[in-house]
Amino acid sequence: MRDTSLIVDAGYAGSVVARELADADQRVLVIARRPHIAANAYDEYDDHGVLVHRYGPHIFHTNTDRGLIASHKAA
Ligand SMILES: Cc1cc2nc3c(=O)[nH]c(=O)nc-3n(C[C@H](O)[C@H](O)[C@H](O)COP(=O)(O)OP(=O)(O)OC[C@H]3O[C@@H](n4cnc5c(N)ncnc54)[C@H](O)[C@@H]3O)c2cc1C
To answer: Is residue 8 assigned to a domain?
Structure first.
């Protein structure tokens, strides 16, 4: 039986740790007090299709030339 790791909130830190653990075949439970993922990096479209950065705009900085790789594999 595998242990389950508890991740408190899915900001940058929590998301990365959850992903790494899941990719290492660990069970992960993510909980959050906010009603959305991404913590301070969260944004959403309003009713007019305008992207709203609720906590301020974020630009993803990276030194990789692979860009972002979206993954929807269940944690
Ligand atoms: C206006 C603004 C603009 C920024 N722009 C950029 C940018 O362009 N590029 C960039 O790379 N970074 C940017 N940053 C910094 C970036 O937001 C942070 O570095 C990043 O969000 C930190 O991620 P984190 O997962 O460590 O923490 P957070 O994103 O702060 O997530 C932590 C989460 O844990 C929750 N939490 C804390 N304590 C508890 C508890 N006891 N119980 C339950 N939940 C708890 C908090 O509510 C929060 O949702 C910006 C920050 C701000 C404020």
So the answer is: yes
Domain that holds residue 31: 4-53
| pLDDT tens by residue, 54-67 | 999 988 787 877 76
Residues with CB under 6 A from ligand 1: 8-9, 11-14, 33-34, 39-41, 55-56, 58-59, 61
- At 28, is the secondary structure helix, strand, or coil? strand
Probe residue for ligand 1, chosen from 40, 54, 64 as the CB with the greatest number of ligand atoms within 8 Å = 40
Assigned domain for 11 exists: yes
Is the model's pLDDT at 72 over the cut of 80?
no
Per the structure, the count of domains in the chain is 1
What's the token pair of residue 22? 């899941």
User: Of 24, 18, 21, 20, which is closest to residue 37 (Cα–Cα)?
Assistant: 18
